[in-house]
């Protein structure tokens, strides 16, 4: 399905940019590290490369035509959405210890307890954005086990 068939009218240019951003070579890495014994930590890295532009465009399309809605900073908006994604992910996977950290490059990383890499992939593939009709492809997710 082409990106032009997803959104009609004046939003087709923005949609084409989003489709190119989603199909770019950027990947989301899911890593599982063993802490001690049977304990593991799962971390999701690289969501900023895949989802940041989509979330900003989603917010613009959602608030288009609404007065009194100011434009938020892209980084602040992305971190807010990332915290929502983290809490929904933790609820669905029934895990604890979730937090959003920054790695050494400043990119956000979601971490939570347990070896739930494949369940996290299913969750990320199920993310859908109502206004931009964008979603993450399986080819954009890479799993690194211990």
From TrEMBL:
InterPro entries: SUI1, SUI1_dom_sf
Residue spans crossing the bilayer: none
PROSITE patterns: SUI1
Ranges where the SUI1 domain occurs: 28-128
Molecular functions (GO terms): translation initiation factor activity
Protein name, per record: SUI1 domain-containing protein
